[in-house]
Amino acid sequence: MKLSEENKNAFLLQIHQIIYQNIKFTLDKFESLDKNSLEHFALTEEEENFINTIKSSSLLQSILKKILINNLDNAFLDLLSIIDGVSEPLSEFGKKTDFLLVDMPEEFNEHYDFLHDEFFETYDTWEQMHNFSKDEDAS
């Protein structure tokens, strides 16, 4: 059973909404510039101070928004390409067999380890593979 057209469209539209909401969340946090809202980003004091520069320039705000949109769009596009099987995941992360997104059967009672639950659990492993520290850029 393949993914229905209705579920596929809903899924893709929800990705666009997630991108929008995350960009709005980030920009709203920057706009408020209070200590509590910025804790989410684990910024240094110098980085927090630079946010005032961004806030004072509509041009910098526009640039930041475009960069965020582009990066999130590209991240989801890369993920969807792997799911579609038109882009191979990097072999350094282990063997992959082809897989598909399908509609969940109405009577689905099996236990399932959800990817969203395991996503952040895999970050430390990824970080160790690349010798990154949490304070370092993953570029």
Q: What topology emerges from the helices and strands here?
A:
Blueprint: H1 5-32, H2 35-38, H3 45-55, H4 58-84, H5 115-118, H6 123-129
Helix pairs in contact: 1-4
Q: What labels describe this entry?
A:
single chain; mainly alpha; 6 helices
In short:
With 139 residues, the protein is mainly α. Helix content is 58%, strand content 0%. It is built from 6 helices and no strands.
Describe the structure.
- The chain is mainly alpha-helical and 139 residues long.
- It has one domain (5-129).
- It has helices at 5-32, 35-38, 45-55, 58-84, 115-118, 123-129.
- It is globular.
- The model has no long low-confidence stretch (mean pLDDT 78).
- How are helices and strands ordered from N to C? HHHHHH
* CA-atom Rg in angstroms: 19 Å
Number of helices: 6
Helical amount among residues, as a percent range?
55-70%
Stretches where pLDDT is under 50 for at least 5 consecutive residues are none
Question: What is the first-to-last residue Cα distance?
Answer: 39 Å
Q: Indicate the proportion of strand residues.
A: under 5%
Tell me how many strands there are. Answer: 0
Q: Which structural class do the helices and strands define?
A: mainly alpha
Chain-averaged pLDDT: 78
Structural domain tally: 1
Spatial shape: globular
Major β-sheet profile: none
